[in-house]
Amino acid sequence: MSFEYPKHIAIIMDGNGRWAKAQNKPRTAGHLAGSENVRRIALHANRNHVKSLTLYAFSTENWARPEEEKNYLFKLPAIFFKKYIAELKRENIRVTYIGEIERFPQNTARIIKDAVAQTAENTGLNLCLAVNYGGRREIVTAAQKAAEKLQKKEIEEITEEEFASCLMSETSDVDLLIRTSGEIRVSNFLLWQIAYAEMIFVSCAWPDFDENQFDECICEFHHRNRRFGGLK
Ligand code: IPE
Ligand code: IPE
Ligand code: MG
Fold first, then answer.
1. Does the residue 109 lie in any domain?
2. Domain holding 57: CATH number?
């Protein structure tokens, strides 16, 4: 494709369960297929010089899922990185995460942190996994941090820039937010960072969302008129 890709793309990877149900498979099969798609879309984004791809993998609300499903989700990072860490390293992809990972089972947290460490020197795509992530939680934590800095007189006032620097992610604002599987809501994802994001909601389930559909979203993004409150 001849167009430039947005710098920061965020995806709410939704619809794994419905994808599985449609094929008479257990929900866990949908999550496994969804994790395979993480590889496909990350490689594609990296090839096209996207700077950051933030993927919503587990929300602070997903603790409400059945134990069996959560236990499978906690196992997925081990399956995924065992298979693909060498490829991610080779492809120059840097793995990072946002979210309160310490609340995950120890082994799950260790595997994710290990992937981060192993790819820390890479300079290509920043593949940021949102794990046990909630936008409100992030904002509250940032508010506490900023208040503390103010109290210690490390800063004179809480500006937008200062506040943003206290967020979990040090990534830039989101340019494009995509949600798969037809729901039209943000489900507590990157609330601060999506202030001026273009949003695209596609009907297909996450495991079926391929490179062509991704590129169609980029195409639509380029047809949007981003005014940022001004006139253009
Ligand atoms: C998204 O797929 C993955 C996670 C939330 C972990 P879902 O599991 O929400 O799939 P649906 O929405 O039930 O189809
Ligand atoms: C959002 O999907 C969270 C992730 C994709 C990880 P959900 O399926 O949990 O969202 P709701 O419950 O439909 O809003
Ligand atoms: Mg869902």
1. yes
2. 3.40.1180.10
Q: Which residues are catalytic?
A: 14, 62
- Pocket residues: Cβ below 6 A from ligand 1: 13-18, 58, 62, 73, 181
pLDDT higher than 60, residue 1: no
Domain assignment of residue 65, given as a range: 8-134+173-223
| pTM more than 0.90 | yes
Task: Give the N- to C-terminal CA distance of the chain in Å, as an integer.
Answer: 26
Ligand number, closest to the Cα atom of 69: 1
Please report which confidence band the pLDDT of residue 172 belongs to, taking 50, 70 and 90 as the band edges: confident
Going edge to edge, which strands form the sheet with 52-59?
Answer: 94-98, 126-133, 52-59, 8-12, 176-179, 198-201
CA–CA distance, 228 with 173 (Å, rounded to integer):
12
